[in-house]
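U., I forgot to send this yesterday:
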Amino acid sequence: MHSKELTGGCACGAVRYAISEPLLEALYCHCTRCQRRTGTAAAPTARVKPGSLTWTKGADNIGKWTPQGGFSKAFCKSCGGQLYSCDPNDPENTIGVRLGTFDGDPGIRPQKRIHVGSAAVWEPIPDDGLPRFEAAP
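Result:
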C-alpha cells in the first residue's frame, strides 16, 4: 500500500481529487448498469476509507445519477468521465472511486469480481483466479 497521497481526476481535468489514506479494497463489477454506464464489460473500482477523499478542484462540476435501487454514479459534467459510485443512503462512508481515474499506481489491484451473473456475453471473464460472485457478496 502507498503511504503517500493518491491523486486523480476526470478526463478533461475539470474535477480533481486527493486521497490521504490507503485504499481499502478493489474489485471488478460486471453488472448491466456498469456495462451500460461505462461501455465496457466491467468497471474496476476501489473503495475509499471514509473521510480520506478530498475534492481539490471542480466539486461543483460533479453530476450524479442514482438508479432506482442502486448506488449513485458520479461523473464530470464537462467531459462525462466516470468518477465514483456511492451508496445514496450513506454517501460519505461507501465510496468506490474508478481505478482509471488515478494519476498513477493506486497501490491496489482488484481482488474479486461481482455481479458475474450478468457479465457481458461478448467478453469472457478471464481465468485470473479472482473469486467470483453471482451478485454482490
